[in-house]
Structure formats: C-alpha cells, structure tokens
Amino acid sequence: MALFFSILIVLGSPLWPLEPNPVHGDPVIIVNITAKEFAYFENGELLLKSPVAVGKKETKTPVGMFTVTVKANQPYYRKLDIPGGDPKNPLGSRWIGFDALDTDGRIYGLHGTNKPSSIGYAVSNGCIRLPKETLETLYDYVEVGTKVYVTEENLSFIDIYEMIITYYQ
C-alpha cells in the first residue's frame, strides 16, 4: 500500500516532467521579447542570433517554455485565405509552430514576414517574426520537439541558456 501511494505522489507531482526537459547539448530556441532578439543553441553552442519582431502590447508573445509541434514550408495563411508562396502572405516562407497557451502549434510560432521593416518592433499578434534567411536556416536546423523558451529577462543569451539547462534538469 505504501508503494502505491509513493508512486501516486511521484506521478502526481508537478515536478514530474510531462515531457523531456532540455539538457546540455539539446537544441533550444530562446526568444527575448524585451530585447526583440532570438538565439538558437545546439550542442551548447550559439549557432544563430537575430533581431525579431514580437507581439504588440494588446497581443503579447506568451512567455514560458514551449515545444515545437508543427513545421511548414510555404505555410498557408488560413485567417485571410492566402496560399503559401503568395507575396501577400504575412507568414513568409516558413512556419515553426509551438504549443504556447495550450495551443497546437498553429496559433503561435516563429515565421517570416512580408514586412521585413517590422523586424525589431513589437507589432505582431503574438508570433515571432524573423528575417527570411535566418528563418530558413533555423527551419533546417529545428526538429519537432525542440524547446522554445520565451522570456522577458534582461540577461545575455548565454546566461539564459545556462539557466534553462540548470533549471530544467
């Protein structure tokens, strides 16, 4: 009986991971919405860093640890029925969706833009816009299951990465 309750406590504990947490070496995308920058780490090395556009005040980019659940090449923009590849498509050439706010990766994501001048500003509906070349490189690196950490902390990307690896182990 004691073993049953011990197992129940461990499995019911909020400390029990529901999915694998990042460990040193795992790929991690970090978005700092205060600095309006993103970084991509793999094998403990910073491989990409770029300015980004983030959510505006009314539709802030959600903060927290998320997981990439969807990738799309030439994504369709269903909100306005704009096909992938169309110059009017605000998603650009790639979509890397993550599960923020209990969504399925089709609401929040990292994507391109048909307005490159928006990069560096808080102008989106909660998504993270990247420059085209950076996004396409990131898309090739990232697999479904990659962690996405979105923060407002005023720290260097190296410090944020080390904090993530330490905290989530």
TrEMBL record:
The protein's annotated pathway: Glycan biosynthesis; Cell wall biogenesis; peptidoglycan biosynthesis
Keywords associated with the record: Cell shape, Cell wall biogenesis/degradation, Hydrolase, Peptidoglycan synthesis, Transferase
MF annotations from Gene Ontology: peptidoglycan L,D-transpeptidase activity; transferase activity
Example of a GO biological process term: peptidoglycan-protein cross-linking
Keyword Hydrolase part of the UniProt annotation: yes
Any single Pfam family the record assigns to this protein: YkuD
Key word Acetylation present: no
Positions annotated as active site in the UniProt record: H111 (proton donor/acceptor), C127 (nucleophile)
Transmembrane residue ranges: none
L,D-TPase catalytic domain boundaries: 27-151
CC annotations in GO: extracellular region
Family: Belongs to the YkuD family.
Protein name: L,D-transpeptidase
Organism annotation: Mangrovibacillus cuniculi
